[in-house]
Amino acid sequence: MKTARLDASAYQAAERLLRHNRGGLVLGDRISPQWIDGGARFWYAVDTSAGRRFVLVDPEAGTREPAFDHGRLATALAAVSGQDVDAAALPFGAIAPTGEAVEFDAFGAHWRCSLDDYACEKAMGSPPGNPLEIPSPDRKSVVFRRGHDLWTRSLEDGGERALTSDGDVDHDYGASPDFFMYSNMLKKLGLPHAPPAASWSPDSRRVLTHRTVQRGVRQTHLVESMPDDGGAPRLLTLRQPFPGDDRFPLAELVVLDLAEGRVVPARAEAVAMPVMSPIFMKWAWWAEDGSAVYYLNRSRDMRTLRLHRLDPGTGEVATVLTETGDTRVEPSQQPTQRPMVRVLSGGKELLWYSQRDGWGHLYLHDAHSGEPRGQVTSGRWAVQEILHVDEARRVVYFVASGLVAADPYRRSVCRVGLDGSGFARVTGDDLDHVVIVPNGGEYFIDSASVTDSPPLTTVRGWDGRVIVELERADITRLTATGWTPPERFRVKAADGRTDVYGVLYRPHGFDPDRRYPVVDHPYPGPQANRVSPSFDPGFFGPDAEATAALGFVVMAVDGRGTPGRSKEFHDASYGRLADAGGLADHVAALEQLAATRPWMDLDRVGIFGHSGGGFAAVRAMLDFPDVFKVGVSEAGTHDNRYYTLGWGETYDGPYDEETYARASNVDIADRLEGELLLIHGGLDENVSPHLTLRLVDRLIAAGKDFEMLVVPGAEHMFFGYESYVARRRWDFLVRHLR
Q1: How many H-runs (helices) and E-runs (strands) does the chain carry?
Q2: How confident is the model at residue 712, as a pLDDT?
Q3: Which of 475, 533, 489, 487 is nearest to 512 (CA)?
Q4: How far apart are CA 401 and CA 434, in angstroms?
Q5: Which of 294, 331, 470, 705 could form a disulfide with 339 if both were Cys (CB 3.0 to 4.6 A apart)?
Q6: Does residue 64 sit in helix, strand or coil?
């Protein structure tokens, strides 16, 4: 068979497909609704072939229409401002429709344009929100950090006052752990720190926050080689516990009573906070009527999960429910998801997610005693998200996966009675559904797609009927790059029994008579999937798409140990991070796919990945050197003994030297046989560069050749350096596989 010659234009196509560019290639694929009238209506902005458009939707009336005449507004604004205004690219990103007019900020001023005669004039308006301030529900006050304490400011008269006064560097109010709170990414965005972890009560009288205790937590260090002021290298110190450490960040929950000027601490043990604030993670929240705070706390070994009720007036804490398990007990399958816990009936009932039957289902409990009242959902499928509970009708609406025979990852909208009766799929098709629900829950916004079919976005009623169509995605620009949709596949895992799923990207200009090198693109994280079941390629997908533009077949697969399916499937990774998300399953997939696709050249197989994927790329070359000949590892977690406690102890279990040593690439570095490129950011406060340097030290000791790129000013995501890092990765793969 012939081999393909790489044209320089392939790099241009690959560049267009990178994550920071790809958004402009697909139009109308996603919307971000901005609610009006408590969610009864909403507006959104969408990019079209004619430019950006603002759209106003009234679900009750079943209407979707332009929020205003874009041409007339552009002409009127240009006339009164003296600035050039393009109707296809209006100089603002947000609007405030009032019915008779539309308001917005542009050219350093607030404007009001009448929708009757399109007369535009400067007007009084609220100043743009400060990302470091949390506004109250009544929009009269904000809470913010000053030093290590929390303050409030009135938006009516500007008056400020301290809400706490005893904060210090080791007892920092509203702070997350250092790597998130004071990240280099935030500094690049011009922010000195993350917003405070604070949540207002519904009546705007109280604030839930926590005092972050980090005294004695292990310190790690980075070197800022080129500070912005041009001075000498600067040491950056942050606190980051390793697995097995005695000290790790804790959150002491407190309620700040603004009306009475009181600080009410929770009379209970502090909440473990190895990764992020429980408030940011939605593990702590106000009851709808503000009468209580509910929060989750998990034991150090992750095998006991408790729900607590906090009295905001007294600080008294009661334990509502406790669940234990043989491995980690989770309130959802992925930590980025809101926990699937709902307090109902004015605090009398509790809807609770559990994997106790081997899947992921909802259970009803008494909210005072914690006693079970019955299993609400059941079957060989998994609840993924609670959407809405209609308490009057005693019905819960939710997203579930595993109900589509063709693909267990596709999500369906379903409903069932709280007594377990009347289960039905609201979306009866076999598409994947991504859903947004307004606070009132009167309807839902549904984006329906599959891997090779762009999304159709609609507003639907809870009976499943389409109320109004919003957008049909336009992929004309995407296909113009040479992109073709990936092939969704199912193969057997290395055990020969379990089905695993993935996607296969064909090279641009694909010719079945040629043989192409193959590149695996893994993300083994037990906390997230690598492959998306929808048209949206997910966070990692654009890197695979761009690599296919260079003449590679690219494979991505979710092996055993990744989330989204049964408890058993997910637990295949527990205590076995060394398996890197089922690398043996990846090898099995390559062999099965190539058996019926002669254009896949398994004599030329490479692998690349980021973070956990960087670990997997190196581990694949060390464990399967006869398969993976070339690898690129970016920001790899190469030795979990020296990575953050929150990762290792959640997914490899309590610290045990033998278990953790098995998940070290450093200890087996002498196995390297192929061509390896290591890339790391010099200011990566998440996965410290010392994890790559430890590997480098062992590779040198073993006399192994490799290449390395350290990007001095880059943090974990290489923000601002994405194109350069991608080009170096592409060059390496092309040079050694093409």
Answers
A1: 14, 44
A2: 94
A3: 487
A4: 11
A5: 331
A6: strand
Residue 140: is its pLDDT beyond 90? yes
Contact predicate 173/209, CB 8 Å: yes
**Would you say how long the chain is, in residues?**
738
Q: Could you tell me if residue 19 is inside a domain?
A: yes
70 shares its domain with 21: no
pLDDT at 643 over 50: yes
Mean pLDDT of 288-317: 96
Considering the domain architecture, whether residues 76 and 14 belong to the same structural domain is answered as no
Q: Calculate mean pLDDT across residues 443-453.
A: 98
596 and 507 share a domain?
yes
- Stretch (H or E) spanning 738: none
Q: Answer yes or no: do 553 and 570 share one domain.
A: yes
pLDDT (tens digit per residue) in 655-672: 999 999 999 999 999 999
What is the model's pTM?
0.95
Residues 19 and 79 in one domain: no
Distance from the first to the final alpha carbon of the chain: 15
In whole angstroms, give the CA distance from residue 311 to residue 208: 11
Rounded to an integer, the average pLDDT of 220-241 is 91
- Total domains in the chain come to 2
What is the average pLDDT value for the chain, to the nearest integer?
95
Q: How far is CA 405 from CA 303, 401, 431, 467, 499, in A?
A: 32, 10, 11, 28, 12
End-of-domain residue from the set 68, 99, 122? 122
pLDDT > 70 fraction of the chain, expressed in percent and rounded:
99
Range of the domain at 52: 34-122
Pairing of strands 206-213, 250-257: antiparallel
Is residue 645 assigned to a domain?
Answer: yes
Is 216 among the domain residues?
no
Rounded CA separation 453/472 (Å): 11
Do 20 and 106 lie in one domain? The reply is no
Q: For residue range 603-619, what is the model confidence (pLDDT) as tens digits?
A: 999 999 999 999 999 99
- CA angle at 425 for the pair 440 and 527, rounded to the nearest 5°: 75
663 within domain boundaries: yes
Which 8-state DSSP code applies to residue 367?
T
- Ranges of beta strands (E only) in 266-394 are 271-272, 284-286, 293-298, 304-310, 317-324, 341-344, 349-354, 361-366, 372-375, 382-390
- Last residue of one domain, picked from the residues 96, 122, 148: 122
Is residue 561 domain-shared with residue 511, that is, in the same domain? yes
Alpha helices in 490-643 (DSSP H): 541-548, 567-571, 583-595, 612-623
Alpha helices in 488-633 (DSSP H): 541-548, 567-571, 583-595, 612-623
Q: What is the CATH number of the domain that holds 727?
A: 3.40.50.1820
